[in-house]
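Handoff note, outgoing to incoming analyst
You'll be picking up this chain. Sequence as last confirmed:
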Amino acid sequence: MLQTSFEIDQRPQGEGISMRDALRVGATRRIAGAFLSLHQLSNMAFPVALILSELVTNAIQHSSGTEVTVTMQCTRDLLYAGVTSNVPGNLTLREAGDDAESGRGLLLMAATVSGLDGTWGVSDDQRTVWCLLPAEGGVQ
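Most recent structure output, in case you need it:
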């Protein structure tokens, strides 16, 4: 199992994320890639990086928390990936207008998970968004 946590900057409502927090998204992709490589699941690196990028970005932008935790676990035939904020969020799937510059992240994540025959959900306490994906091609 992989679990890593990092602090996120507090910012006024409507202000963009800091450079430090933006760099956390890229670091999460690299960490996920290394974890997948370790479990011989490199073929899943692109979609899992996309999923985690969207979930980490949402946690940074919308949770009002101070810490984000990324968890990945690989069992014999399933890959679990989850992103947790230390403050409950209010997850909303919404349709973004054609000219909108944001608002498609969760839809993109959901479509990617669905395209991989996976499932996703939100914990009862609204702090964790998770997905389960078939772990295809790996040897654990």
